[in-house]
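Checklist before submission:
- one chain only
- standard amino acids only
- sequence pasted in full

Submission:
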Amino acid sequence: MGSKRQSSKPPSSRVTASKNQEDPRLHFDAVHEMLCKMEEAGEYKKKSLEWQIMRRTGISKEKFLEHRNELIRLSEFFQLYDIDGNDSLSVDEVLPLLKHIGLEPYRSEETELVCKLLQTADVDGDDSLSFAEFLELMAKVREYQKQERDPSLIPHFKSLANGAHPPRLEIDKVDQALIAAGIVGKTRFEKDLQRKLVCDWDVDNSGDISFTEFSDICQCVQECLFCHRTEEIVKYATSLGIQRHRLSSYLWSFDKCDVSRSDGLSMTQIEKILYTVTVKPPKRAELEEMFNMCGIDHKALVPLEQYLQIIHVASDSNMSHDESDWDYKIDVTPIQSPASGKNNTVAEEKTFTLRDVPVQKLREILGLFMSGPLSEAEIKQLEAHEMMERIAGYLGVQSHSNLREEFAKPVENVRQLFAMCKFSAESK
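Returned file contents:
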């Protein structure tokens, strides 16, 4: 009766530190100090890389200071098109670069301009551009592009700018002005990249920009978006097994044929290209078979990713023409590999992974698992590697897994993969 009532409260789970034991939790000052050190380390690494570029390329100190805030990006851009890795750009390497930053070097009306730009930039006259000469070329290209673009940018700038004289545009409205001008990233990553470039531009924290600054932002955003898209093409070509020197030839052929700037080629155009880039070009019936094997409509315009896939298949001398099993009978039971982890039947065959699937087909396949208008909009925002990861998750494999080995019935091409995914999506 006189006993004390036991407390029903559970023992406290709060972390306490004894006098002789340090508190494991981080205080604000410790976190702030850690972030400052990380920022300092990042800035040191950036400056170190800038000096390395200066020493490696031999550019003058004046050029270094002039381009320092973009030196790393321009160096990466230069190396992206330096297919043979000799630290210079040949004419064949420069032309795709000029196209991918907005010029039309293969059109007759701009041929004279392109020749003049190259001659002006090629100071030593060796028919190639060093990195220093590349910087001169970029300055000339930017000057030309700004002269062509600025008149169309002025109305969009003025419609959103304040009433000051001269008018200025709030940094929060720059994205809106870029969209109105037709300069906008397509994927979520590209939009994030665009937003970061805009935010980083306001170095003085004034909160607004002049028209000249807005014009410079437009140029910078377009260059970065073009560079990113080209990087994605290079990654995709690499995943297919296309060597960089061959990729340069393939891109040159694609760009030269795409005179309408539709970003796609007909089967007839691709057939003509194959006669110039392959030793033994396929006949018309064989080419149609390749289109079917890759799940590509031969009556529609073929975008760049699918074009690369067709060219790669046509160039593969070991390509198997036995694709009679297109009406795929689904068996999605994963193979239980023996101790060796290999399936001897398919180990000797060429691998087929999600990386071999064209971007548009990845969207169609992912759409089988994600239905509805909201899902369709989300898929359009995804990068290729993000779509591959999601599809791999639905199938219970890795994005780099060889689909010939992962299932009891080997998946050997895009058409079979689509059929399997459709069956799998409908079964859930």
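Reviewer check: Residues 28-57 form the longest helix (30 residues).
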